[in-house]
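Hi F.,

I've been meaning to write this up properly since the lab meeting, where we talked about keeping a consistent format for the predictions we share between groups. The idea is simple: the sequence comes first, exactly as it goes in, then the structure tokens exactly as they come out, then a line or two of notes. No screenshots and no reformatting. I'm using this chain as the first example so we have something concrete to point to.
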Amino acid sequence: MEKLDLLSLSLEETQDLIDGMGEKKYRGKQIFQWVNKGIKDFEDMMNIPKALRERLQENTFITHIQMEKKLISNIDNTRKYLFLLDDGNIIEAVVMRYKHGLTACISSQVGCLMGCSFCASTKGGLIRNLRAGEMMDQILLMQKDLNERISNIVLMGSGEPLHNYQEVIKFLKIVNNENGLNIGNRHITLSTCGLIPEIKKLADLQIPINLAISLHAPNDGLRQQMMPIAKKYNIKELIEACKYYLEKNNRRITFEYALVKGVNDEENHAHQLSELLKGMLCHVNLIPVNTVVESNYEKSSNQKINLFQKVLKERGIETTIRREMGSDINAACGQLRNNYLNRD
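Output, unedited:
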């Protein structure tokens, strides 16, 4: 019988597991609290009877990823981590400090299948999905390293979260539980390149998280050049799915738009984008693209970026320009992992 990862279990699943062992359900709550505090050794669960601890040792385990490398930005104190998984795979995560607290950007997969041309995460393809516990442990390890509470989570690291739908939904339930990290849904953002069936499934769950859509182009032809997923789902279908999400959740959607010099940063692109998003409860986050060697993409000029924002704002679209964080430590998704994997 395969051992269960306790850190990947919701409170209810933990209680059911303990109940199935013939123990009182409240023991499940105690165990859930221990593992969500970052406890890795069953012997440290002081209020759990020894006999039960021994049974847990035989039948379960607690995810314990290792910190392989840490970089700290001299510019803004952004921290980037490489984590080593128990199967030898490498993932990465970032903690950024804002006025409102610490925001953790975590990975949901080892690598990525989506193939977006401007993203470093996808260069080696998809290796595997992460368990909910492996997502949880990224946060637990970063909190321990910082000795501070992380108050905001962004599922925007390596991987497409909705391509790992079941484990990501489990993670959301675990991280939000008041007996665990108790991070509010409104402090969690999930970023997707646009898997339409999963967007609709997520909408139906009515979990009040923030949804971010990686759009990056105002028309199908351009988007298909940049994002292979656009060949499966066109922009019209994507916008309809977003409107469905809005109907179900009434939560403002963020559209992410990575500006690439000479590709999608012209004034006419801004006009097309404003027409596309007209009347929606939304916000556009303009992202000066990170240089990815393999793609030959370059960042737009500040003049082009500011003009793009001006056009959108004049057309009534709330727009911000993302502040670059941790630029001196390659804090963008996938960059550090790729450098690590390609080292001599």
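Notes:
Residues 185 and 207 are 7 Å apart (CA to CA).
The mean pLDDT is 93.

If this format works for you, I'll send the rest the same way.

G.
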